[in-house]
Amino acid sequence: MRAFEFMKDQVIKVKETDSVRSVIEKFIEHGISGLPVVNEANEIVAYISDGDIMRYIGKHKDIFIDTIFFVDVIKGDDINFEERLKKVLDLNVTEIAKKTVLTIPWNEEIENIAALLGKKQIKKLPVVRKGVLVGIISRGDVIRHSFKSVMGN
């Protein structure tokens, strides 16, 4: 079985020009914890997860974060949690999203997809065809489709 046979082709995503606020809204609306970030050509430029956001809203002491905004904001404890949340919401998604994104080709075999999800300990893999986002596959998708025929369903 290949990716295009069982991937979800209606991908919830955000544009590279969107704010973290729009990411949070999609997380809440769809009950998800990660989204691909795409450009105007629907090419993946980043991936944002709830973990990426957690790193910015948590309390930090004596650390350097590679964003000028946060070097100023997080020095010491002079900003409260609610203020930090408000500032994070207005950030551009690409300021905190991961720029290196694992993807799989649309015709990748399910065994290789399972191996990659397991080895990298990630929840979802964007599916691309000719560099363009065409779907997404989760660990649950692989489990459901892998065992469907074996279990007689």
From TrEMBL:
<feature type="domain" description="CBS">
    <location>
        <begin position="97"/>
        <end position="153"/>
    </location>
</feature>
<feature type="domain" description="CBS">
    <location>
        <begin position="7"/>
        <end position="63"/>
    </location>
</feature>
<dbReference type="InterPro" id="IPR051257">
    <property type="entry name" value="Diverse_CBS-Domain"/>
</dbReference>
<keyword id="KW-0129">CBS domain</keyword>
<protein>
    <submittedName>
        <fullName>CBS domain-containing protein</fullName>
    </submittedName>
</protein>
<dbReference type="InterPro" id="IPR046342">
    <property type="entry name" value="CBS_dom_sf"/>
</dbReference>
<dbReference type="InterPro" id="IPR000644">
    <property type="entry name" value="CBS_dom"/>
</dbReference>
<dbReference type="Pfam" id="PF00571">
    <property type="entry name" value="CBS"/>
</dbReference>
